[in-house]
Amino acid sequence: MSTAIEPPGLSETQRQIVELAREFARTKIEPFAAEWDRRAYFARDVIDELGRLGFLGMCAPEEYDGMGLDTVTYLLALEEIAAADASVAVSLSIHNAIPTTMLVRHGSPAQKDRFLKGMARGEVLAGFALSEPESGSDAAALRTRAVRDGDAWVLSGAKAWATNGGTADLMMVMARSERGICAFVVPTDAPGYRPGKPEDKMGLRASNTVALALEDVRLPADHLLGEEGEGFGYAMEGLDAGRLGIAVQAVGIARRALEHSVAYCAERRQFGRPLREFQGVQFKLADMATRVEAARALTHAVATRRDRGEGTTMQASMAKVFASEAAMWVTTQAVQLFGGYGYMRDFPVEKLFRDAKVTEIYEGTSEIQRIIVARGLYPRG
Ligand code: COS
Hints:
The structure is a single chain. The chain is α+β, with helices and mostly antiparallel strands. It folds into 3 domains: 12-120, Butyryl-Coa Dehydrogenase, subunit A, domain 1 (Orthogonal Bundle), CATH 1.10.540; 126-229, Butyryl-CoA Dehydrogenase, subunit A, domain 2, CATH 2.40.110.10; 233-376, Butyryl-CoA Dehydrogenase, subunit A, domain 3 (Up-down Bundle), CATH 1.20.140.10. 52% of the residues lie in helices and 15% in strands. The chain contains 10 helices and 10 strands. It has helices at 12-39, 44-52, 71-84, 86-106, 109-121, 231-267, 279-307, 313-338, 349-357, 366-377; strands spanning 126-129, 145-149, 152-163, 170-177, 180-187, 193-195, 209-220, 224-225, 269-270, 273-274. The strands form 3 sheets. It has a 4-stranded mixed β-sheet with strand order 1-4-5-8. A 4-stranded antiparallel β-sheet has the order 2-3-7-6, covered by helices on one side. Helix 4 packs antiparallel against helix 6 (231-267), helix 6 (231-267) runs antiparallel to helix 7 and helix 6 (231-267) packs parallel to helix 8. It is globular, with a radius of gyration of 21 Å. The N and C termini lie far apart (48 Å). It binds coenzyme a persulfide (COS). Coenzyme a persulfide (COS) binds next to helix 6 and helix 10.
């Protein structure tokens, strides 16, 4: 099933990648997504298969064994996965956008050889650990310590809500040394790296979200990314990329809710007519379709800007806040259109509704996105 609205003007490469992602999503993800959600099952085998097809290397350059896709193409593929299951999409989004971007921009050639290549080939799944129990929106207040000990770094502290934290092979961990915030590449088999049990979440139940205890995790000196004390900026750059992934995840969720609603309103009859013939229903469907299209168009416009090498901090926040609120609104309408069935787990829209909510929260709440947009309006203020 496809929306009335397909992204326009795809190149041949884009069409091939979208087709590959769509076919994979249709056959290997969507039929199982409700069951994974019920069991809170993280489908590492499916992520690995996506990795073998290149989908864990979408944003890594070809010289490091990645696909080297432009941002728009990457987002087109991610939308297809998100429309099938937002939980699988978030693992892909974090891996491709945050640790990948941080390594591409600030990794030494040796670090790229050692870490980025495996990630791009899909042999290594990566995640990102910034938030802590007492620092969420105020990310710069993080307290995880990094202490230099001879030619090693020793990390200690606690992280919260780390996506992929219990399943990844490698995490990009933010910690504070005496010179400020730093980024570290942490293999998850390092002694002292202790993931908690998976969080029991409202939505995105098949994604892996854990608290992390870092108990004197000892790392060779060359696991520090870039310059000591410069890590906060690197993390924020990672989030500039990450927020576009979350925006398109929201587009995928909203699009799927629209598609289900369009089909249901053609089929379901009340008062002797299909629902689609009632003007009140038509108005809802029209507004849903408009918001899906607007959210995608804004996200792609920001991606195009990023591909031209322009700054996108405030624009990525615009896309993220707009698309995530669109997804929440569209999925709320979808549940309403389905009526009693919409509230039942046997029908697909309640999962989409639950999955949409977190897009307004993680990688920066809607309130934080608005702060970033407002700051962008007064660049020197
Ligand atoms: N790219 C590069 N550098 C950036 C940047 C960006 N997008 N945003 C900020 N920086 C740099 C600034 O230039 C500044 O550098 P200097 O100290 O050299 O001047 C530094 O980072 C601090 O920036 P700022 O003063 O804006 O930091 P704040 O503490 O005010 O925090 C917000 C900024 C609120 C935007 C940040 O904490 C944030 O994004 N919070 C939400 C965190 C989040 O999304 N968490 C989700 C967890 S990841 S799943």
